[in-house]
């Protein structure tokens, strides 16, 4: 199944039919694969295709910053992507359809009724219609309540959304949908529970998708890395899966589109009936030809940079995983640029070590020792073993007199020539006692082709050191291995009890030492924090003095642009200026405040008209987050621009006429690394939040016309900025 074709077909079908009530025309696409296979890349492609097809009836949600708690992500990211005014209108539209059904009948054969048509076209307000024609509003509200109950058993959602139609309750309902506790108003009407669990958050999204779908709108939801969300659910796993499967069914039934990325384990955890309703895509691993093609397309200016066989070697070490391949290519290109050499097999191995050996080998050993100390495990560090003590065991844990557990720490395993040294250490450890188990800790990376050999020697898979989760993984592995040895020994009960008591004593001693160390660290940190605070206060005072007067020629309140670095070619400078101008267009809060104050002296609007007060808009948490994203984006672009300017300065540093073309070409990988750093960084920013600012800024500016709105301007200015800067720089130096 082709992802792009699937999405194109979905929109083609729904746009062609556009029924008032869509049933069963939705879709769910599950992108299944292990870490690094390219799921996130496909999710981004899906999002771009959805965005290209979207109109006012498509409501997009993107979850690309997964955390372990779905409720937190709902509150902080997802609900902010819903336009609450639009949601209120859609609920009202749904109510219009319910009222219109009183005039058309259940079979819809009386659709020509003028009142029904006026309601559906939003020409008539349903409230006066209900009152003037003597309809029983409580019955109609009960119908709305009953239909919403089809989505979730939770009464709170149907009651709350019914109350949206009442202006006295609408703000309280929106606050509740954002995850806050229900207000007194809502409690009096029976909404007594907050959206305070993963299940409730999933149900909330299902209800919103249902409302949109029942009036011919569509919700498109892209979820990246579902496995990350599910990683720590434990006892909440079953309720989460049930709620997620219910969400899948709602999206399909009401014409929505759900795109989900997850591991094969998550796919298997879903029920058979849910998997049958989903379309599954399983990305393929890269072959050597894929890697060669990528290198050829991304570096056409230097086709001989990679030595023969280097691309195949990268593919082999990366086990064909696209993310690893791209990471190794970037590292290898950077190392080759520093060494002014080609990318050889040795360069690739150096790239693996640079990418995955995040800490020195000695630090890995210290982490092993600290974890064992915290566990209260008696051990010897750097224990000699074997004939003549020639082999050094990093941690030796004796268990009684006849058994032990040996921990061996090695660097990244990349070539088969490293295996004999491991075999030698394991043999030396096992020769010391009759029963010896081995835990092999590898710093950062094990080539897939070596895993079988290593596990055959040690008796188990190696434990790969990654700084974040290593202590817990090592602790669990140690407990499992020691438990296996103790069960095999069948020791006397007193010996086992004595070992446990000794272990508790060691844990207490370690804990006391750690507390004393932490107390000293806190004192040091407090002194350092006081020093930094004084420095920051001094800098702020200096900034205040510098900003006391406006710059010559600068309007009051206008955005202050950082000084442009000298030496940028005009075409490249224009790319940065356009991007920064586009960001300022949607984040010039000074202009917004000026317009608000200017409006004080203008003729007041007619009663009941006008926009929502600015003060009310700015109290919304999503606005603060949106301005934060705009600030980060502006600083990122400025830093990117300065780095490119420094690159141009470095290639012009020698001689008035610049360096020879071949020398400049050798510096291109450094420029490419700068551009890719920008691309990778901007990809993690939640740029969808800028949509809030685009709507907000329209209050203070003249309409720009439908042909070129601000949303298009900022999209065009930021789209592939890193690639366009790289191409512009190459043209500027004549390459």
Automatic annotation (TrEMBL):
Residues 544-563 are annotated as: Disordered. SUPFAM superfamilies: P-loop containing nucleoside triphosphate hydrolases (SSF52540). InterPro entries: P-loop_NTPase. It comes from the Bacteria. This is AAA+ ATPase domain-containing protein. It comes from Sphaerisporangium aureirubrum.
